[in-house]
């Protein structure tokens, strides 16, 4: 079940008749990438960019069966909303933003995160998606444990985390 994070309405300079908003959420359910696309796509936009982070089957020389994610949910949601505000304060001209991260166990080939952005032009949506995923890995308190085929497991650090080096 998705955590209701609230949908934050964010006005934009070139707002269409349709209400613009950012959607951020955490979920324990499989992620539907088409839902993200359907949220951001609009007749006034010419570009929709989507990043989907998935569980891969190996790390180093170990076989990964699945990942397990935990979060400090209130802080994670607050940071996710702040990331949307931050990217909107850049020179990117954006229409809608959708950001959803999965918690709990995520088997290989399934999505852990989806970030979707729409804009009039592709450069804005592509740049915003890159900035959002990089900032997400740096700022959002979500922790990942890799669970291996050999029965072992290991908590993994994001090398980008700002608190890691402070």
Condensed summary:
The chain has three helices and ten strands.
Q: Note poorly predicted spans.
A: 1-19
Rg on CA atoms, Å? 16 Å
Shape: elongated
Largest sheet: 5 strands, mixed
Count of helix runs: 3
**Share in β-strands:** 35-45%
- What distance lies between the first and last C-alpha atoms, to the nearest angstrom? 34 Å
CATH level-4 homologous superfamily: Molybdopterin biosynthesis MoaE subunit
Percent helix range: 25-40%
> What strand line-up does the widest sheet have?
1-2-6-8-3
Average of per-residue pLDDT values = 87
What structural class do the secondary elements suggest?
alpha+beta
| CATH 2nd-level architecture | Alpha-Beta Complex
At the fold tier of CATH, the topology name is: Aldehyde Oxidoreductase, domain 3
What's the number of structural domains? 1
- In total, how many beta strands? 10
Reconstruct the topology from this structure.
Elements: E1 7-8, E2 22-27, H1 33-40, E3 47-54, E4 58-59, E5 62-71, H2 73-88, E6 94-102, E7 104-107, E8 111-119, H3 122-139, E9 142-148, E10 153-156
Helix pairs in contact: 2-3
Structure description:
The chain has 166 residues and is α+β, with helices and mostly antiparallel strands. Helices cover 25% and strands 37% of the residues. The chain has a five-stranded mixed β-sheet with strand order 1-2-6-8-3, with helices on both faces. Strands 4, 5, 7, 9 and 10 form a five-stranded antiparallel β-sheet that branches. Strand 4 and strand 5 form a beta hairpin. Helix 2 (73-88) packs antiparallel against helix 3.
